[in-house]
Amino acid sequence: MIRNLVLSCFLLASLLGQVPDHIDIDLDGKPFTTFHSGVAEGRPYLAPLRSASGKIITRRFPMEMIDGESRDHLHHRGLWFSYDDVNGVKFWENDPSYKDPRTGRIVATKAEWRPASKTLETVFHWNDHGGKTVLVEHRVMTFRATPALRIIDFDITLTAPEKVVFGDTKEGAFAIRLADALTEKSGSGKMVNAEGKQGMAAIWGKRSSWVDYSGTVDGEKLGIAIFDHPSNFGYPVHWHARDYGLFAVDPWGQHAFDPAAEVAHTNVPAGGSLHFRWRVVIHEGDTASAHIAELYREFAK
Protein backbone atom coordinates (compact mmCIF):
# COMPACT_ATOMS: atom_id res chain seq x y z
CA MET A 1 0.00 0.00 0.00
CA ILE A 2 2.82 2.41 0.90
CA ARG A 3 4.61 1.65 -2.38
CA ASN A 4 1.43 2.33 -4.37
CA LEU A 5 0.93 5.64 -2.55
CA VAL A 6 4.53 6.70 -3.21
CA LEU A 7 4.22 5.76 -6.91
CA SER A 8 1.00 7.78 -7.16
CA CYS A 9 2.77 10.83 -5.72
CA PHE A 10 5.59 10.46 -8.24
CA LEU A 11 3.13 10.16 -11.12
CA LEU A 12 1.28 13.25 -9.94
CA ALA A 13 4.52 15.25 -9.74
CA SER A 14 5.36 14.19 -13.30
CA LEU A 15 1.92 15.16 -14.55
CA LEU A 16 2.30 18.58 -12.91
CA GLY A 17 5.38 19.14 -15.06
CA GLN A 18 8.02 19.20 -12.35
CA VAL A 19 10.19 16.78 -14.34
CA PRO A 20 9.53 15.91 -18.01
CA ASP A 21 8.53 12.31 -18.59
CA HIS A 22 11.14 12.17 -21.35
CA ILE A 23 13.63 14.44 -23.14
CA ASP A 24 14.72 13.65 -26.71
CA ILE A 25 18.39 14.35 -27.39
CA ASP A 26 19.56 14.99 -30.95
CA LEU A 27 23.16 15.31 -32.12
CA ASP A 28 24.11 16.75 -35.51
CA GLY A 29 20.42 17.02 -36.31
CA LYS A 30 19.84 13.29 -35.82
CA PRO A 31 18.19 11.37 -32.96
CA PHE A 32 20.74 10.02 -30.50
CA THR A 33 18.92 9.00 -27.32
CA THR A 34 16.04 9.81 -24.99
CA PHE A 35 16.21 10.54 -21.28
CA HIS A 36 13.38 8.80 -19.44
CA SER A 37 12.54 10.05 -15.95
CA GLY A 38 11.51 6.48 -15.08
CA VAL A 39 8.53 7.24 -12.87
CA ALA A 40 6.83 3.95 -13.70
CA GLU A 41 10.07 1.95 -14.04
CA GLY A 42 11.71 2.67 -10.69
CA ARG A 43 14.67 4.69 -11.95
CA PRO A 44 15.74 7.05 -14.76
CA TYR A 45 17.56 5.79 -17.83
CA LEU A 46 18.72 6.65 -21.36
CA ALA A 47 17.34 4.55 -24.23
CA PRO A 48 17.93 3.75 -26.97
CA LEU A 49 21.55 4.70 -27.71
CA ARG A 50 22.53 5.11 -31.36
CA SER A 51 25.76 5.14 -33.33
CA ALA A 52 26.79 7.98 -35.64
CA SER A 53 25.11 6.10 -38.49
CA GLY A 54 21.88 5.74 -36.53
CA LYS A 55 22.19 2.06 -35.56
CA ILE A 56 20.62 1.19 -32.20
CA ILE A 57 23.27 -0.44 -30.00
CA THR A 58 21.19 -1.03 -26.85
CA ARG A 59 18.64 -3.76 -26.28
CA ARG A 60 15.08 -2.53 -26.80
CA PHE A 61 13.38 -4.85 -24.28
CA PRO A 62 11.54 -4.25 -21.98
CA MET A 63 10.57 -0.85 -23.42
CA GLU A 64 9.64 -2.52 -26.74
CA MET A 65 8.75 -6.08 -27.70
CA ILE A 66 10.94 -7.11 -30.65
CA ASP A 67 10.58 -10.59 -32.12
CA GLY A 68 13.61 -12.76 -31.41
CA GLU A 69 15.16 -10.37 -28.89
CA SER A 70 16.23 -11.62 -25.45
CA ARG A 71 13.77 -10.91 -22.63
CA ASP A 72 15.71 -11.60 -19.44
CA HIS A 73 16.36 -9.10 -16.63
CA LEU A 74 13.46 -6.65 -16.67
CA HIS A 75 15.60 -4.15 -14.73
CA HIS A 76 18.15 -3.82 -17.58
CA ARG A 77 16.89 -0.69 -19.38
CA GLY A 78 19.21 1.13 -21.81
CA LEU A 79 21.87 2.98 -19.82
CA TRP A 80 21.40 3.53 -16.09
CA PHE A 81 23.19 3.96 -12.76
CA SER A 82 22.08 2.18 -9.60
CA TYR A 83 23.32 -0.20 -6.93
CA ASP A 84 21.73 -3.07 -5.05
CA ASP A 85 22.91 -2.47 -1.48
CA VAL A 86 22.68 1.11 -0.22
CA ASN A 87 21.84 0.90 3.47
CA GLY A 88 20.35 -2.48 2.58
CA VAL A 89 18.02 -0.98 -0.06
CA LYS A 90 17.90 -2.57 -3.51
CA PHE A 91 18.16 -0.01 -6.31
CA TRP A 92 19.51 -2.38 -9.00
CA GLU A 93 16.96 -5.21 -9.06
CA ASN A 94 14.09 -2.78 -8.59
CA ASP A 95 11.63 -3.28 -11.42
CA PRO A 96 8.15 -2.43 -10.02
CA SER A 97 7.01 -5.99 -10.76
CA TYR A 98 9.51 -7.35 -8.21
CA LYS A 99 8.07 -7.98 -4.76
CA ASP A 100 11.16 -7.77 -2.52
CA PRO A 101 10.26 -5.40 0.37
CA ARG A 102 13.80 -3.98 0.32
CA THR A 103 13.25 -2.49 -3.16
CA GLY A 104 13.82 1.26 -3.51
CA ARG A 105 13.16 3.82 -6.24
CA ILE A 106 15.37 6.45 -7.85
CA VAL A 107 13.24 9.54 -8.39
CA ALA A 108 14.09 12.39 -10.75
CA THR A 109 13.47 15.76 -9.07
CA LYS A 110 15.21 17.86 -11.72
CA ALA A 111 15.97 17.37 -15.42
CA GLU A 112 17.10 20.44 -17.34
CA TRP A 113 18.16 20.09 -20.97
CA ARG A 114 20.39 22.84 -22.40
CA PRO A 115 20.46 22.42 -26.19
CA ALA A 116 23.16 25.03 -26.79
CA SER A 117 25.73 23.24 -24.65
CA LYS A 118 24.26 19.74 -25.15
CA THR A 119 24.14 19.18 -21.40
CA LEU A 120 21.46 17.56 -19.28
CA GLU A 121 21.58 18.44 -15.59
CA THR A 122 19.62 16.18 -13.27
CA VAL A 123 18.99 15.53 -9.60
CA PHE A 124 17.82 12.12 -8.42
CA HIS A 125 16.66 11.03 -4.97
CA TRP A 126 17.43 7.41 -4.09
CA ASN A 127 14.43 6.57 -1.88
CA ASP A 128 13.79 3.48 0.19
CA HIS A 129 10.51 1.54 0.07
CA GLY A 130 8.95 4.00 2.52
CA GLY A 131 9.92 7.07 0.50
CA LYS A 132 12.85 8.17 2.70
CA THR A 133 15.78 9.59 0.74
CA VAL A 134 18.98 7.68 1.54
CA LEU A 135 21.11 9.23 -1.22
CA VAL A 136 20.97 12.34 -3.43
CA GLU A 137 22.56 12.16 -6.89
CA HIS A 138 23.52 15.27 -8.84
CA ARG A 139 24.40 14.37 -12.42
CA VAL A 140 25.52 16.37 -15.43
CA MET A 141 25.55 14.55 -18.78
CA THR A 142 27.37 16.20 -21.68
CA PHE A 143 26.77 14.90 -25.20
CA ARG A 144 29.16 15.28 -28.14
CA ALA A 145 29.31 14.10 -31.73
CA THR A 146 31.98 13.64 -34.39
CA PRO A 147 31.48 12.02 -37.81
CA ALA A 148 32.45 8.62 -36.34
CA LEU A 149 31.73 8.96 -32.60
CA ARG A 150 28.98 9.60 -30.12
CA ILE A 151 30.27 10.56 -26.66
CA ILE A 152 28.55 11.05 -23.30
CA ASP A 153 30.43 12.42 -20.30
CA PHE A 154 28.92 11.70 -16.90
CA ASP A 155 29.81 13.85 -13.90
CA ILE A 156 28.09 12.39 -10.85
CA THR A 157 28.12 13.42 -7.19
CA LEU A 158 26.42 11.23 -4.60
CA THR A 159 25.64 12.97 -1.30
CA ALA A 160 24.52 11.26 1.88
CA PRO A 161 21.78 13.08 3.86
CA GLU A 162 22.52 10.64 6.67
CA LYS A 163 25.24 8.01 7.02
CA VAL A 164 25.26 5.69 4.00
CA VAL A 165 26.83 2.24 3.73
CA PHE A 166 27.42 0.68 0.32
CA GLY A 167 27.50 -3.09 0.66
CA ASP A 168 29.66 -5.53 -1.26
CA THR A 169 27.70 -6.90 -4.23
CA LYS A 170 28.23 -7.50 -7.92
CA GLU A 171 24.77 -6.07 -8.65
CA GLY A 172 25.74 -2.64 -9.96
CA ALA A 173 26.35 -0.02 -10.93
CA PHE A 174 26.97 2.24 -13.98
CA ALA A 175 25.56 0.03 -16.70
CA ILE A 176 24.42 -0.49 -20.28
CA ARG A 177 22.41 -3.39 -21.71
CA LEU A 178 23.67 -3.99 -25.22
CA ALA A 179 21.74 -5.12 -28.28
CA ASP A 180 21.90 -8.89 -28.74
CA ALA A 181 23.86 -8.46 -31.99
CA LEU A 182 26.75 -6.95 -29.99
CA THR A 183 26.97 -9.67 -27.36
CA GLU A 184 29.54 -12.44 -27.12
CA LYS A 185 26.88 -15.02 -26.34
CA SER A 186 24.38 -14.61 -29.18
CA GLY A 187 25.98 -12.02 -31.45
CA SER A 188 29.33 -11.07 -32.93
CA GLY A 189 30.64 -9.11 -29.95
CA LYS A 190 34.03 -9.19 -28.28
CA MET A 191 35.21 -7.51 -25.09
CA VAL A 192 38.70 -6.03 -24.84
CA ASN A 193 40.11 -4.24 -21.79
CA ALA A 194 42.97 -1.79 -21.22
CA GLU A 195 45.39 -4.66 -20.56
CA GLY A 196 44.55 -6.31 -23.87
CA LYS A 197 42.59 -9.19 -22.33
CA GLN A 198 39.67 -10.48 -24.37
CA GLY A 199 36.37 -12.16 -23.60
CA MET A 200 34.17 -12.41 -20.54
CA ALA A 201 36.23 -15.10 -18.82
CA ALA A 202 39.28 -12.82 -18.80
CA ILE A 203 37.45 -9.55 -18.06
CA TRP A 204 34.49 -10.19 -15.74
CA GLY A 205 35.30 -9.17 -12.16
CA LYS A 206 38.77 -7.92 -13.05
CA ARG A 207 39.98 -4.35 -12.58
CA SER A 208 40.70 -2.18 -15.60
CA SER A 209 40.52 1.50 -16.55
CA TRP A 210 38.40 0.79 -19.63
CA VAL A 211 36.62 -1.94 -21.55
CA ASP A 212 35.42 -1.84 -25.14
CA TYR A 213 32.64 -4.11 -26.44
CA SER A 214 32.45 -4.28 -30.24
CA GLY A 215 30.70 -6.35 -32.89
CA THR A 216 28.53 -6.05 -35.98
CA VAL A 217 25.07 -4.47 -36.01
CA ASP A 218 23.03 -4.62 -39.23
CA GLY A 219 26.18 -5.23 -41.26
CA GLU A 220 28.20 -2.41 -39.68
CA LYS A 221 31.17 -2.88 -37.36
CA LEU A 222 30.45 -0.87 -34.21
CA GLY A 223 31.50 -0.72 -30.59
CA ILE A 224 30.93 0.98 -27.28
CA ALA A 225 33.49 1.71 -24.58
CA ILE A 226 33.19 2.79 -20.96
CA PHE A 227 36.05 4.83 -19.46
CA ASP A 228 36.73 4.97 -15.70
CA HIS A 229 38.45 8.22 -14.67
CA PRO A 230 41.59 7.94 -12.48
CA SER A 231 40.04 10.31 -9.91
CA ASN A 232 37.11 7.95 -9.25
CA PHE A 233 36.57 6.07 -6.02
CA GLY A 234 37.65 2.45 -6.53
CA TYR A 235 39.76 3.16 -9.63
CA PRO A 236 40.56 1.03 -11.56
CA VAL A 237 37.08 -0.37 -11.27
CA HIS A 238 35.81 -3.96 -11.28
CA TRP A 239 33.86 -4.91 -14.40
CA HIS A 240 30.48 -6.59 -14.21
CA ALA A 241 30.58 -7.29 -17.96
CA ARG A 242 28.70 -10.35 -19.18
CA ASP A 243 28.70 -12.25 -22.47
CA TYR A 244 24.90 -11.86 -22.75
CA GLY A 245 25.15 -8.06 -23.00
CA LEU A 246 25.27 -6.52 -19.53
CA PHE A 247 28.12 -4.01 -19.61
CA ALA A 248 28.79 -2.38 -16.23
CA VAL A 249 31.35 -0.98 -13.82
CA ASP A 250 31.06 -1.58 -10.06
CA PRO A 251 33.15 0.66 -7.77
CA TRP A 252 31.92 -0.96 -4.53
CA GLY A 253 31.96 -4.71 -5.03
CA GLN A 254 35.14 -6.43 -3.81
CA HIS A 255 34.55 -9.90 -2.35
CA ALA A 256 31.67 -10.29 -4.81
CA PHE A 257 34.22 -10.40 -7.63
CA ASP A 258 37.20 -11.90 -5.81
CA PRO A 259 36.47 -14.53 -3.13
CA ALA A 260 40.00 -14.02 -1.79
CA ALA A 261 39.31 -10.35 -1.04
CA GLU A 262 37.80 -9.14 2.21
CA VAL A 263 34.15 -8.09 2.22
CA ALA A 264 34.08 -4.33 1.71
CA HIS A 265 31.63 -1.85 3.19
CA THR A 266 32.03 1.71 1.97
CA ASN A 267 30.89 4.24 4.56
CA VAL A 268 29.90 7.79 3.65
CA PRO A 269 29.18 10.03 6.66
CA ALA A 270 26.18 12.34 6.86
CA GLY A 271 26.87 15.25 4.53
CA GLY A 272 29.70 13.36 2.84
CA SER A 273 29.87 12.62 -0.87
CA LEU A 274 31.44 10.52 -3.60
CA HIS A 275 32.31 11.88 -7.04
CA PHE A 276 32.51 9.88 -10.28
CA ARG A 277 33.42 10.69 -13.85
CA TRP A 278 32.66 8.16 -16.57
CA ARG A 279 32.72 8.48 -20.34
CA VAL A 280 30.77 6.39 -22.85
CA VAL A 281 32.10 6.28 -26.42
CA ILE A 282 30.06 4.75 -29.25
CA HIS A 283 32.35 4.25 -32.24
CA GLU A 284 32.75 2.84 -35.70
CA GLY A 285 35.04 -0.17 -36.19
CA ASP A 286 36.68 -2.29 -33.49
CA THR A 287 38.84 -1.44 -30.48
CA ALA A 288 42.03 -0.97 -32.47
CA SER A 289 40.63 0.91 -35.45
CA ALA A 290 38.69 3.26 -33.16
CA HIS A 291 41.91 4.04 -31.21
CA ILE A 292 40.19 3.41 -27.88
CA ALA A 293 43.44 3.42 -25.89
CA GLU A 294 44.33 6.84 -27.27
CA LEU A 295 40.83 8.18 -26.61
CA TYR A 296 41.12 6.97 -23.02
CA ARG A 297 44.46 8.74 -22.50
CA GLU A 298 42.83 11.99 -23.61
CA PHE A 299 39.97 11.42 -21.17
CA ALA A 300 42.30 10.58 -18.28
CA LYS A 301 44.09 13.91 -18.62
Account of the protein in words:
It is a single chain. The protein is mainly beta and 301 residues long. It has one domain (2-300): Beta-galactosidase, Chain A, domain 5 (Distorted Sandwich). Helices cover 9% and strands 38% of the residues. The chain contains 3 helices and 17 strands. It has helices at residues 2-15, 200-203, 292-300; strands spanning 22-27, 30-36, 45-46, 79-83, 105-114, 119-127, 133-145, 149-159, 164-166, 172-177, 190-193, 210-217, 220-228, 238-239, 246-250, 266-268, 273-284. The strands form 4 sheets. It has an 8-stranded antiparallel sheet, covered by helices on one side. It has a 4-stranded antiparallel sheet with strand order 4-10-15-14, with no helix packed on it. Strands 1-2-3 form a 3-stranded antiparallel sheet, with no helix packed on it. A hairpin with a 3-residue loop joins strand 7 and strand 8 (149-159). The longest helix has 14 residues, at 2-15. The chain is globular. It starts with a helix and ends with a helix.
What topology does this entry show?
Layout: H1 2-15, E1 22-27, E2 30-36, E3 45-46, E4 79-83, E5 105-114, E6 119-127, E7 133-145, E8 149-159, E9 164-166, E10 172-177, E11 190-193, H2 200-203, E12 210-217, E13 220-228, E14 238-239, E15 246-250, E16 266-268, E17 273-284, H3 292-300
Antiparallel strand pairs: 1-2, 2-3, 4-10, 5-6, 6-7, 7-8, 8-17, 9-16, 10-15, 11-12, 12-13, 13-17, 14-15
